[in-house]
């Protein structure tokens, strides 16, 4: 069985033709151009779907879409998304079905990502999985007892908005001290700007302006022993560890997967988190879980979207 | 169908004969006498089971037991429990089956409590339920998509050990800042002892010694405007609100139930928690959940245990 996975973002999208083993047989990327309206976006995605099939001469069985925002997965509707201004209750699945003739299934992108790890990634074979994606924001996906946790109206698993520090920094959601406000790329940028404005002596500020400094820069300078970068890094590690510790006590998972761009920091991030999480888990939980870095890389979005279809097929 | 519910505690136990509507037809309480060993306890419980049946002339279909500690619900084994020193991998279900001839099902007591709320309580009819029991410790039970969340080795839903204040007070589990370390009856007793030792001026200390002051006293003095009692109360409300807010963002539940002895504080506790939780939930969650106080009262344990059997029967 071959399926289409669509990784739909606010700026870019990617469409891939994927087989059961997670090979991507053909792949197209493009600009989403949200400002042209939802119908135009649906048409553009549909044309890319046709292209990846004609490129390979293979017909797909169905299409899976990972989309940001609040998704009605039963109706295939994007209720709304901060990334898609003006989209309200847009029947994306139906539109693309009309253009392509294929069945279309949509999930929130973080949920799709978790399915991707479960089907193709480091969480393969496990029924109790927590996924965190560390990027501009922090997304979450949970598989418990083999099923995706969606919640009563499908907006659960917002792990980036667990509170890990009451009275902590303001979060984009309006609350204070959410994991996202402390450990996302956005949070790191704020720490850096704050350090810069306080004239802190750091090797970071000798190469670039504060606004050009990325989380990757901060992690590299931290590795090289820059005190300020280390302090930023430690705040990220602490917040992540508190959240992961609580999640382990709540879900008793087998695997916690750290994905997203910041997972590229590798063992330099993983090892201190593994160590510090032990401060927050119950003694009985020790030995019951592993924390792993995602291996899906830049294909995580397409594979997650494709796995929406594979998971449905496997549960029939 | 009539079933037996056994509420097994470290000090006391209660056995009840329960019908499908949650009526308790007969009830016996007694001392657990853990020091006499697990076989003696199993025999005592079995005799009480026979008594409640002979009292009413009704035979039960099966027995449900809510037990503290780590339970292997598939094998009916109490792996271990801080409340039962010396019990390791004790096959409680099998022992009681031998004595009574009835099928026996065991769950962790907090999980059983959640099933009780789901079957007979304020969470009846809902598939997405969070339960917190506020007592000496804080127990948790979660029903998500209609199923009890047990986790990979059955020790999940430890909601009392979510971290709500990194570097907060030491918790019995060894960590710092768990919900239990901030909002349990034990936490309140520690706040009171600390206030007493610092010679704080409070109406609390004019009636009783610090060691005799209960959470109920603190709540009553808080209601009457005593500043120290209010400060203790506010710490409990804050910690509860942070935890409940995170749980709503994680599970997108329909109902959050607050039970246990401290739920007797009623609206005085519920209303500020309802208000403060809004500071920690995503705006999209508003309107999707209710927070309710348990109505099961002193029968919560028996009804929870009985509902283990009713839930199994309903899912066959």
Automatic annotation (TrEMBL), chains A, B:
This is Glucokinase. Keywords: ATP-binding, Kinase, Nucleotide-binding, Transferase. GO terms for cellular component: cytoplasm. Its EC number is 2.7.1.2. It comes from Pseudothermotoga lettingae (strain ATCC BAA-301 / DSM 14385 / NBRC 107922 / TMO). Gene3D superfamilies: 3.30.420.40. It is an enzyme of class 2 (transferase). GO terms for biological process: glycolytic process. The lineage of its organism: Bacteria, Thermotogati, Thermotogota, Thermotogae, Thermotogales.
């Amino acid at each position: 069985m071959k399926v289409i996975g669509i990784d739909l973002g606010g700026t870019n999208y990617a469409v891939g033709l994927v087989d059961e083993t997670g090979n991507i047989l053909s792949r197209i990327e493009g600009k989403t151009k949200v400002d042209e309206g939802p119908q135009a976006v649906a048409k553009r995605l549909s044309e890319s779907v046709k292209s990846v099939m004609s490129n390979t001469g293979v017909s797909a069985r169905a299409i899976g879409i990972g989309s940001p925002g609040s998704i009605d997965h039963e109706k295939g509707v994007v209720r709304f998304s901060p990334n898609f201004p003006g989209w309200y209750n847009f029947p994306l699945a139906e539109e693309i079905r009309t253009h392509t003739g294929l069945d279309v299934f949509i999930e929130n992108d973080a949920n799709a990502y978790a399915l991707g790890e479960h089907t193709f990634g480091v969480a393969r074979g496990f029924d109790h999985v927590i996924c965190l994606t560390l990027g501009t924001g922090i997304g979450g996906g949970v598989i418990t007892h083999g099923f995706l946790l969606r919640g009563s109206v499908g907006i659960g698993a917002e792990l980036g908005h667990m509170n890990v520090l009451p009275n902590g920094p303001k979060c984009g959601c309006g609350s204070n001290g959410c994991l996202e406000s402390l450990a996302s790329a956005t949070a790191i940028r704020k720490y850096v700007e704050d350090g810069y404005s306080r004239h802190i002596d750091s090797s970071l500020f000798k190469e670039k302006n504060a606004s050009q400094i990325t989380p990757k820069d901060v992690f590299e300078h931290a590795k090289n022993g820059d005190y300020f970068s280390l302090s930023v890094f430690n705040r990220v590690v602490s917040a992540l560890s508190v959240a992961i510790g609580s999640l382990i006590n709540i879900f008793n998972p087998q695997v916690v997967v750290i994905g997203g761009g910041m997972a590229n920091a590798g063992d330099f991030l993983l090892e201190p988190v593994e160590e510090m999480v032990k401060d927050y888990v119950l003694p009985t939980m020790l030995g019951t879980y592993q924390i792993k870095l995602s291996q899906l890389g830049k294909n995580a979005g397409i594979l997650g979207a494709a796995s929406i279809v594979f998971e449905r097929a496997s549960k029939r």
